[in-house]
Write a structure and sequence with these properties.
The chain is α+β, with helices and mostly antiparallel strands and about 270 residues long. The protein folds into 2 domains: about 140 residues, no CATH class; about 110 residues. It is built from 4 helices and 19 strands. A hairpin with a 3-residue loop joins strand 10 and strand 11.
Length: about 270
Amino acid sequence: MTRLFVVTLLALGLGQVAEAQVTLPVEPPILVSVFEAPSRVEGGQPQLTLALQSRREYPTLQYRLDAMTQVEGSDVTVTIARVINDSPYQSQMMGRASYTTPLRLAPGVYRLAIRNDSLVDRYSLRIGARTVEILGDSTPFTWPQRVAYRLPPTAVFVHCTPAGFSDAACDAFFSLVSTRLGLRADPDLSQPDRNPFLHARANGAVPDPLPQRVFTSATSEQYEQLLRLAGTFTDLFRHAQYKLSFVIWRANGLGSGCYDGVCTQFSS
């Protein structure tokens, strides 16, 4: 059983076993963002989320920022103590240290303070109906993501991988979604650097350049129709040399991958 367990870990890329906890000082800069993340449960609502991420990459993916967040009235204080790795198993991939926490804040203006020892960076956090903004100048310690677009609860994100085909194949599908299903693509949210579905993983990274759209106000029936249309569309490429595929997410956490005429559901 022990041997099988170790083999399984190796297959998952968790082949190293940590002998002791690793503790390191925080190295600037730290990327700061506040965005609305899709729900991870069926029927849930998007969740306003604060995320910190190191610019430095560490030897494994198990390094994290040891931090805590306190909310008192209009004051949001984030205290970063250290970088820590206390996982018993280690991946074989490098990664950035990160920290995320949900924020239960109503629309309004808040004072955001980020602390590390005696160092304090202060910003203004403005939560509106459509955007979340972090106002203030960047410092050597923290780099804020200025604007994040909020996620409509009924939004659907369609990501297209055209493989060997041109982007025109994806554009043709997006046009069908609008004309046949009556869904409207939001021109702001559909830009890769503004897409709320990508904020969680795009902090400090290169935006995804592949064709994508965020369609707003999709009912459950329209979502099911969208999956059937995606299945039919990808089936057209079943016997082609190259494959075209879609990944479709809902703001409530449900998602599907569509390929060769079949759409398979998964959770975000």
